Structures are given as structure tokens and as C-alpha cells.
Request: fold
Amino acid sequence: MMSVPVLASGMTPGRANTNAATRLQPKRHIQRPWLALLLLGGSLLVPTPLALADGEPAAVKVRTLVKAGEAWNGTRLPAYPKGEPEITVLHITIPPGVQLPMHTHPVINAGMLIRGQLLVTSKEGARLQLKAGEGLIEMVNQPHYGTNNGNEPAEIVVVYAGEKGKPITVLEPAAGKAP
Reply:
């Protein structure tokens, strides 16, 4: 007995199918894989917007506020901690005329002043005046404080790259008081 090959469409080569239902069915079989390919993988064929050199879509604007291996006062940043990482993001609002207490940060942190102005002063006297829209990389393990020397609340968002269970800010003992 001779076997006749059957095509993926269900039709045999060299033979015409005269049954109308049989002629319609192979078309559905052909369309379904094509439709599945279109629905599942066809999105890969859809053109995407042009991209900028840094990989962002053309409509997205990226501005680096600050990028460095040292704090705003020029001191080198320490190595990251070896324990379990814990990232903290704070939105801090400082009323006009308010001076924060002297403090240190035992972890690397960076921030962006989103409103107002802020004067950061180190214990040694180094100063940094920030305006809205500016960023800074904070000093690590060096006493400093901030003062809102403007007429409106100063708002800063700060990101701390800390270690789980350890503080991100340590207040300095007040002058004249025992630690």
C-alpha cells in the first residue's frame, strides 16, 4: 500500500479537495498559527521609539544631579557596608529659619533639594549652599548640620544606602554636655 504524504495544512499534494468544508478548514489551520504568532510574538516586530545614547526613550529626559566618589566637601566616600543592605528614602521638610542639630551619617547618602534653599555646614566650617533642584552627596561620619536660610520651607529627598538594623543618622552630643 502506498502512503500519501499529508501537508501541515491537512491537504495532500497533487490532489484537489472537492468538499467545500474541507477547503475552508485548512485555511483556518493556517490562520491560527499566524494569528498566534502575531498576538504572542508580533509585538517584537512593532517599531519602538528612537532612543537616546543612554538607553532612554526619546521623550524621557535624564539629568544627572551629582555623581562622584566623594562627598560635597571633597572627602572620599567609604566602602559599602558588608551586612544586609537597607535603603531608606526620606522626604524632609525644614521650616524657614530652622537649624538642624549637629549630626553624622554613618552611611552613604545623597539627596536633592526639591523646594527652598538649605545651607549645609560642617563642624570644621565648610559650607554648601543648596537651591531647589540641586543635589548633594553627604559627608559620611563627619559632623554637620543644615539650616533653612530661606523664606519658605526647604524640602529635601534623601536616599540612604544603609545596613539593616543600623542607624542612618546619629546626633552629636550637645556642646558642654557629657556624651
About this structure: The two ends are 102 Å apart (CA to CA). The chain is about 10% helix and 30% strand.
